[in-house]
Amino acid sequence: MGDKKKKSRSRRDKGRDRAFLFFTAPGFILYSFFFIMPVIMGFYYSATDWDGISKSYNFVGFDNYLKIFRTGQFTDALFFTIKYTVLLVVLTIVLGLAIAMLLNRKIKGRTFFRGIYFIPAVLSSLTVGLIFNKICYYIIPVIGKALHIEMLSQNPLADKNLAMWTILFVNLWQGLCIPTLLFLAGLQSVPTDLYDGAALDGASAWDIFRYITIPFILPVVSVVFVLTLKGGLMVFDYIKAMTEGGPGSSTRSVAMLIYKHGFTQNKYAFAIAEAIFMGLVVAAISAVQIYFTDKKKAV
Amino acid sequence: MKFKKLSVVMAALLAASSLLVACGGGNSGDSGTTEKEPETTEAAEEEPAAAEADAEDDGQEEASADGEVTLELLLTKTEIVDVMEQIAAKFCEENPGVKIDVTSTSDGATLVRTRAASNELPDIMNTYPAEDFYKDMFRDGYFEDITGADYLSKVNSTAMEMSNCDGNYYAVPMSLSTYGIYANMDVLEANGITETPSTWEELIADCETLKANGVTGFLLPNKDVGNVAQRFERTVGIINNDTYSEFKQVADGEMEAKDSPTLQTWCDYNEQLLNYTTDDHMGMDYDIAAAEFSNGNGAFMLSGTWMLATVQKNNPDANVELFAFPHPRGETTKVPVNIDTSFSISSTCANKEIGLKFLEFMTREDIAQMYCDADGNVSTIEGVEYSIPQHANMKTAVDEGNIFLTAVNFWPTGLREEIRDGCQMFLGDGDRDAFFESSQEAIETIYADN
Q1: Mean of the per-residue pLDDT values for chain B?
Q2: A10 touches chain B (CB under 8 A)
Q3: Interface test with chain A among B3, B10, B17, by most A beta carbons within 10 Å
Q4: Residue A6's pLDDT band (boundaries 50, 70, 90)?
Q5: Average pLDDT in the B408-433 region?
Q6: pLDDT given for residue A13 in this prediction
Q7: Is the pLDDT reported for residue B42 higher than 50?
Q8: Is B93 in the A-facing interface, judged by CB distances under 8 Å?
Q9: pLDDT at A286
Q10: Which residues of chain A does B4 touch, with a Cβ-Cβ cutoff of 8 Å?
Q11: Which pTM does this prediction carry?
Q12: Nearest chain A residue to B413, by CA
């Protein structure tokens, strides 16, 4: 009797395993083919001196990795990328949350405003960059001169101190839409009776925000954090469209540097080595981030 | 616990791999870098996509194979698309059953590199046979060897010499681009200047006159780092025709960048020209500068023969003239030239016979004339009448042999792209020490890599 039961369960298990396999296989194969394979190929090519087109190349071992820090370019680009990412993450969360809370109020034309705030999300980032490129040349200096703001009476992209902030502004202008939407959805999931109860107990607005809103939307904050972190560390299209890393190298992100070495200087293998190194940096940052969010059980 | 640790590692790997893949994903080659010649930057990000799409169509049609041959003609010079479409149509008319799809991109280097990597080079395309990038591809067998073809005898011998690759030929050079200073004659005449300057002193004197009248002397698109790079490369070549050797001395430690006479002169002349440019030169792109120049909002602009098409598009009535960039130290001036358009067929060409026929077709006198009239560059094909008054000075220079092949063809790959950041900074802040330091590093790095 017992034996029979065991047997039938194992048969059922086998059937279930097969079903699992059946469902996971396509994803696994696609993932392996499009993600794992290129990474392995990348490691392979990073140990060569391949220029991206030639049919023959030599193995150079770890030479490319050793060359990464030969000049200060990579460190500069990495420093810029991290600075940019920190600012982007902080500003996205603060501003996104603020806008979402405003849009969550019972104001006139709420649907209209929600729609308006979402429009930039449907544009391509390259297009947005090119549009702002023109705005920075034709419109900003005129406004700056009219208002006698010396800083803005020139194209802000031409100033090495302002260029990063301009790119950041454009990135936020477009990049805030999705986080705001996510925050809005998060805010709407907070049970209103909790707010009512807190109001009855005489809690201040800050207390309500700190002890009711924040705990409920923490998972959303975490998601936004990860998305923005990824966007910041890989920033490329806005920079490409607006400054190409200039003036000089003051807005050159790691992705721009990799592009420069790979595509304008034919140092393909070297660029891959830089990308792999950057990948390891991102992996380390992600590991820290996952460790912390896991601790808070937010995800 | 174990699972948690594993998931951390997996997630970290995932994040890392997505970055790598994203970097590889740039392959489709969008957006306009001003890689080769920053002739036109318009519609930069749309065209490669269009090119790719067309290429796909092309493949499908080939597959249907109902006796019709379809070849793709890729142009990395967007301003010649119109004339090449007309020429292609004419070719198809004379060769029934042949269809030529003209595709174009303003980011040639990236597109060619990615298509070569996937072994999908277009059947016919324009190449730059004097540049190392293409020479390497010729040596690797990506393009058909056309050495000894009859029609090559119709090509000017200087141009043939420039496109020679280890004694073989892989491209038909159609035209030579020359570089110098464009003058808007209407602006000059309105300020009492009737002739283009022929010495550096005259140029500066003219600029002073213009400045006194409140007119912009030079339009310098210094935001456009590709244009800065090109200006640097062409003009240091004028200062010293053999910069390769001078920079080699810097790379070998025989000289420091700050003692390089060529780099010093480059700084000197730019410091002077910056007195006569607009306030917003650091924020100006090439297309904006070209438009301002065409519309008479500036007297001079450094550029090459390819700019004429853009000027005429911006303002059909523009009265412009191209003259040689005078040597800033008063020494003999030679005009930098480069092979501007040349056509090659790839070794993966769907029908080589038709492809070769097309190359021959391009060298036919009437076709070469048609091309030359639209393109504006000095033609290299025998029998073609060069009647572009705006470039008369350049034609004389070419005929007299008062030219040199521009530096980029001799420089180690990547030098122009490495040194340009420092150049742009110098144009912005005028800090010579920083410029010499960055040039020193750029030259050392690039010479060591090649």
Answers
A1: 84
A2: no
A3: B17
A4: low
A5: 92
A6: 80
A7: no
A8: no
A9: 86
A10: 294
A11: 0.82
A12: A265
Counted residue by residue, chain B has a size of: 450
- For every residue of chain B, which 3-state class applies, written as one string? CHHHHHHHHHHHHHHHHHHHHHHHHHHHCCCCCCCCCCCCCCCCCCHHHHHHHHHHHHHHHHHHCCCCEEEEEEECCHHHHHHHHHHHHHHHHHCCCEEEEEEECCCHHHHHHHHHHCCCCCCEEECCCCCHHHHHHHHCCCECCCCCCHHHHHECHHHHHHCCECCECCCEEEEEEEEEEEEEHHHHHHCCCCCCCCCHHHHHHHHHHHHHCCCCCECCCCCCHHHHHHHHHHHHHHHCCCHHHHHHHHHCCCCCHHHCHHHHHHHHHHHHHHHHECCCHHHCCHHHHHHHHHCCCCCEEEEECCHHHHHHHHCCCCCEEEECCCCCCCCCCCEEEEEEEEEEEECCCCCHHHHHHHHHHHCCHHHHHHHHHHHCCEECECCCCCCCHHHHHHHHHHHHCCEEECHHHCCCCCHHHHHHHHHHHHHHHCCHHHHHHHHHHHHHHHHHHC
Contacts of B22 in chain A (CB under 8 A): 234, 255
pLDDT surpassing 80 at residue A285: yes
Q: What is the pLDDT of residue A296?
A: 60
* Closest among A218, A205, A172, A184 to A113, alpha carbons compared: A184
* Pair B350, B126: CB distance under 8 Å: no
What number is the ipTM of this complex? 0.84
- Alpha-carbon dihedral of residues A295, B2, B8, B12, nearest 10 degrees? 160
Percent of chain B predicted with pLDDT > 70? 85
Residue with structure tokens 């119109």?
Answer: B82
Q: For tokens 């910056």, what's the residue?
A: B274
Q: pLDDT tens digit string along A210-260?
A: 888 888 898 899 889 989 998 999 999 999 999 999 898 999 999 999 999
Site of tokens 């050079």: B173
| pLDDT number for residue A30 | 92
